[in-house]
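Holo prediction. Input below; ligand is adenosine-5'-diphosphate.
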Amino acid sequence: MSENCSHNCSECAKGCGANEKGSLLKSLPAGARVKKVIAVVSGKGGVGKSSVCALLAAMSAKKGYKTALLDADVTGPSLPKMFGVNEKATANERGIVPVETKSGIQTMSMNLLLENESDPVLWRGALIAGAAVQFWTDVLWRDVELMFVDMPPGTGDVPLSVFQSLPLAGVVVVSTPQDLVRMIVEKALNMAKKMNIPVLGLVENMSYAVCPCCSARLEIFGQSKAAAVANEFGISAVARLPIDPDLVALADGGRVEEYASTEPLESVFRAIEEV
Ligand code: ADP
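Structure of the complex:
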């Protein structure tokens, strides 16, 4: 299978069988192209998974990659707000056209389809999972080099469908120090392992705060467990992101692309580039 395989066998003459009978991988619509897909996952909600996903995508666009964001968190979509994307997605006879953020990141999210952002998605699991997968099969992604998928938290229906249907190159696991309890993270890690998808990096978010007076690192949620967990699970790229009110202010103001302190995520980004 070529490095650039999009599993869209209808467009390729190689006949490698990447999407042959038996595989649950879904094809992109005709004309859409995505080179590499990375999923950002967490064991539970509220740990900063969407924020980290947004920051990785913003870094990717800044580095010059044609970047996309697929918001598979269908019932809790937060990416459009973080990027200040208000316009609705449009469609033509070939599929749905993704909306671009200020720095040109192609984005698809349930909130770009709902009439009102605050409308709840009152659907059962199978429908929600179907919608997440349709963001792959029905969206006209334009020559994307790096796509980041914001997964719903946990290991339920939707993550399982996305894991099975999209050609993921790897996952990045986001956690917080108190959430880095073995069992929760282990479930997310084991899901990736069972699906044969490499875990490229572990991000311990809200890992510490920096004292504004003396610059000391305060481990508010307890001692970091990132290195120990990464070591145990053989994950080489580890990042520790501090609690940072600037990140909240920019995300709440729809300007997450302007967040400059992404240096701690560089090692995880390199692992994404190298896979
Ligand atoms: P999840 O996707 O895991 O539910 P979010 O990314 O939506 O989490 O983050 C939950 C809340 O925590 C948001 O208000 C977000 O702005 C805030 N947050 C995330 N990361 C940080 C951080 N490093 N410092 C401060 N606040 C953060």
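Helices lie at 49-62, 79-83, 125-137, 157-165, 182-194, 226-233, 245-252, 266-274. That is the main takeaway for now.
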